[in-house]
Structure formats: structure tokens, C-alpha cells
Input
Amino acid sequence: MSTQSLFERAAAVLAAADETDATSETNKADGTFGTGALGRPAASAPSLWRALRAADALPSLDTDPAVLVDLVCEAGRRATPAPLAETLLVARPLLAAAQLPVPDGPLTVASGPLDVRFAHVDTGSRVGPLGAGGTDDAVRVSGTLSRVPWARGADAVVVLTEGPSSGPMLLLLDAGQCRQVAGTNLAGEPRDELVLIDVAVPAERVRRVPAALVEEARWRAGLARAALIAGAARRCVELTVAHTSSRVQFGRPLSHFQAVKQEEAKLVEEAALIGAAVGAATAALAEPGAAEFPAWIAAAQASASVAEIARIAHQLHGAIGFTELSPLRLATTRMWSWRDEDGGEHAWQRRIGRRVVAAGGDRLWPLVTGS
Output
């Protein structure tokens, strides 16, 4: 199957999920994750995976990264209720790099300090205190991971944490091994707390990883959020143009007023800035080691543009844009949430600034242009 055909099939599945949501239930009074003002069912994540598999549209591990980014952008545009970005752009590449098995279902990623101990302590070792080494890499893990995206809708969780031997470790946990405490972001998407109580992780699901892989996890997460925001920004443009073209005031459509045209031009410009930054980072994915800096720029630009895009879209929609019946709030509430996750505008800009200063003034232009 060609990459274009794969994208078309997957996009059709995402579109069907988007259409299905229009008639689904609103949030339950008991706090379970429903639809409406705060989002859609976490149960839809495995359903979406089954639909992608049935349509022969589930990307394989060797799928062109550009297609994966395009799919994540489409997921952002459709407000797709599943961890597509986390699975395709973060979890799968990390597992492949760490030479761990890659599950077929939806995945999520978490990081943070945990109490990690070797399950089989090497009592014969004379290096370090007792427990500093193990006869193998099997570990027992305790602690709490906060605000994990789509944890209740994922089959497995990729965890990055500090190992017992003072180095980063990557763990692959089954979702059933963790106690889940439900939480959501502003848009109502699952951001759950995972409580680990002496969870046993066998050696075949544990890898000691270099610091470079931890950095890769960070920029991949930033790129994933930027791609989602790019899709949501495109949706804001579509909805706003449609609204101003159909809404009539003083005898003519809103889009005929010069002030409205100027604001729409700004809206299109901001969305295009994000798209261009994500496109540059996507192109850099083809060359190992070249994508980190462009991914930072994409994440920074996406986060910076959210406020202006949301302002213009809601201003031109008027009060109706904030109502539960308006699809605009599905895009803007997600953008407001995504821009602060996995970094944030100022965090990415500080990384960019430090890299530029370290490279020196004569390297500024090559860094900016990628030449």
C-alpha cells in the first residue's frame, strides 16, 4: 500500500470517528469521561484502533514519518479521542530505539521520579551499597506518575525514569499494572494519575537508555503536541471562514467587512506559521539526529500562536463559539491544553536560546535556515 493510500484510509477512519462524536453522549454526572463540553469517551481509543486495523489503515513501524505527522495533524483537526500522537510519534519510536517489543494497541508515555529497585539484588557485588546492582535488569517500581495522557485508553505505558544504578531507564508497563486515578485537561481529554505499588517489571521489559534517548523523548513529545495544534489551528480557520461567510449582518456576510477580512488574514497567517514549523521538523526526521532543534522551534511556534488563533476565532464567532453546540470549542480548548503540556512556549524558547548562544553568532543563520 502506498503512503498516500494509507493516509487516505486512516483519515477516513478519523473522519468517521469525528462524525460519530456529534451524536454521542455528554459528560456523565458521576464524572466518567463522556462527550460534549469536556470531551469524549476514553473507551473510544481501542475502538478507533480496531477501526484502523479493520480498514488496513494502522501505520506500521516503518511508515514514513511524514505520514505519521500528517495523521497526527489530522487527529488534531478532528479532535480525535485517542492517543494517536503519543503512540505514533513518541511511544513507538522510543520502544524501537530501546529495542523493546512494540505492542499493537494504543500507547501512552509518562516520565518522572519513581522508586525503582532491582528485583534480584546482586548480593555478591562489592561495588556500591547493597541493592546498587542486580543479577539482571528486572525491577520493582513504586510511585506516582501525574497527568498521563490517555492512560485509561491505552494498552501499555512507556515510562522514562531514573534507574537504581543512577542512570535513565525505560520501562514498558501494561496499563493493568497501574492503579488509575481519573483526571482531565481543560478540553476533557484524559490526563490520569498512575499509582504504582511495588509493580514487578521483568527484565525483557526494561532497558537502560542513554541520556540522548531521554532528550529525544522530550522533543518528540513537543513535536507531537505541535502537530496536534497545527491540525486544530487548521480547523479554527475552516470553521471561522465558514461562519463569517454564512453569517449576515447589516445586509451582507461578515466576511465582506474589511475589519473581518484583516482578522481572518491574521488567523490564516498564524496557522500557516505553525504548519511551516511542523513541516520543517517533519522533513528533518528523515536524517537521524537532525530533528531536535526543528522540533523545538515547531513546539515553541505552536505554543506561541495558540493565543492569537483562539482570540481571533472566538472574536469572529461571537458568543456562539463558546457554546457546547459549537465545534470551535473542541479545537480551542484542546489548543489551550496542548500548548502547556510537554513544555510550553517559554520552556521551548529557553532551549532554543541556549542552543543559539552556545553555537555562537556566526552559526545563527545556519541554525535558523537548517543549512
